[in-house]
Design brief:
- The N terminus is likely disordered.
- A hairpin with a 5-residue loop joins strand 1 and strand 2.
- The chain is of the alpha+beta class.
- The termini are far apart.
- The chain has 2 helices and 4 strands.
Length: 90
């Protein structure tokens, strides 16, 4: 399940540095549990979009890169990585 139009981009960045992206259910749970983001207001079982907060530090940027890579793998149908990131939550 991809973003609202089902054929839209797997992720996009906003001017504040936050991102909207599609993730597997497991990665969504991890992202939210770590406090890195939240479900998009339009989220539903068929509209699979979450928001990743904009990174503020180099460490958070590395975590954001891992989340974007997970989104790409998910959208492309590739196997997920073992974990989103080893970085500490926000």
């Amino acid at each position: 399940m991809l973003p609202p139009r089902l054929n839209a981009e797997f992720a996009h960045v906003h001017t504040d540095g936050s991102l909207h992206l599609a993730l597997s259910q497991e990665d969504q749970r991890e992202l939210i549990a770590k406090g890195w983001g939240e479900r998009h207001p339009l989220y539903s079982p068929t509209v699979n979009v979450v928001m990743l907060y904009g990174p503020r530090t180099d460490e958070e940027l590395e975590s954001a890169k891992a989340v974007v890579a997970a989104s790409y793998r998910y959208a492309a149908g590739h196997a997920p990585a073992p974990r989103l990131s080893r970085s500490a939550p926000r």
